[in-house]
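Write out this protein's structure.
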Amino acid sequence: MDDQICVGAIGGAFGVHGEVRLKSYTSDPEAIADYAPLTGDNGETYQVQITREIAQGFAARLSGVRSKEDADALKGVRLYAPRDRLPSLPDDEFYHADLIGLTVFDTGGVEMGRVKAVLNHGATDLLEIIRPGVSKTILLPFTMACVPTVDLAAGRIVADPPEGLLD
């Protein structure tokens, strides 16, 4: 799935007529339907029709989903679009999928670990970094101040972590 980018997830049924709760991960949330057909991590392919905006996402109809039971069975399924269907990004923006797995070095060239996940809890993106030989991960703010360099071609990130983060 290297050529696929996760663009959303199904949150279960919305109502009793086969609609699903759809969480969009695209910069323009309604654009998720423009990238259809989408492939679920369950191996199925879906056409998407957004029916209305709801709290924390959209109500949507997916091809092949006819009942509440069908929709509930899809709860948690992540939806992917081919990378070539998505817009190209400016030099200072990245798809989360491209950051996961990159090696992180501090400004002195010492390896800090690898990016496990990219999280966002409201204020800014955070890189979750797995440190070698340490079971606890660290969360590094994904800002220009903390992450001055991302080199996708070399598979590395240069970070300037805030004081005390690595203690």
